[in-house]
Amino acid sequence: MTVLLAIETSGKYGSVAIAKVPQELQEADATHDAGLASPAVVAVDLPTDRGSAQSLAAFIDSLLRSENLKPSDLGCIAVLSGPGSFTGLRVGIATAKSMAYALSIPVVELDTLDCILRQTRHTTEGYRLAHVLLDAYRGQLFVKTISGNTTTGRTEGATVLCDIEGLVQSAMSAGIDKEQVFVGPGCERLQRYLAREEKLDAVKKWFESVRWINDSHSSPQASSVAELGWRKWMSGKTLDPFLLLPKYFRGSAAEEKASKPV
Hints:
The protein is α/β, with parallel strands linked by helices. The chain is 38% helix and 24% strand. The protein has 10 helices and 11 strands. A hairpin with a 6-residue loop joins strand 1 (3-8) and strand 2 (15-20).
């Protein structure tokens, strides 16, 4: 059986998912390549009244049982390696590493903003510029920018950490039009920044010209981790569990404070 476990704990709340080849394909003629099939995905959200560290293991076990699966049925584990919550990333990666090591199976690591981009791909394709945003706090955002269109081709930038003011200046210099879209949980932080009284007059026209997408589909979900992870797994882009590390993109507040000269 070809089964992948997906873990998403990059934010305040999390989710887990199982991706597997549909049963009818497993029972089909041996000439079919089950690995190339689109998997069936089943996902469940972790509870919002406690942290993922308290609930993740129990919900993985519950999801496996609900699908009549055992841990030994797993062939790969996909997990977001960052950016995101320091604690959330550590919890997800520690769980993925320990399970993969115990089961002698590979892992697949994914970028959080790639996950958001997949979930919003149908709403961003028609724009000249699409900015995927995740709140990094301390006046910063994690950003991935996609430029071009489906006719000329699209170029996907790397995930970067940038100051909000720098992002605003860069986006405004691209022009005032309706061909820019901002998506993801970081939209709220950017909108609050732009709505400040001393900023609003200077950016009002541009602010109203772009589109904002920040709904339930723009927060990372384990179902998308499963779909993206499946593709990487089937193409052989896996990782030894020992090499899996969280990507924070910067030090913690405590680390940054400690590094400053007294």
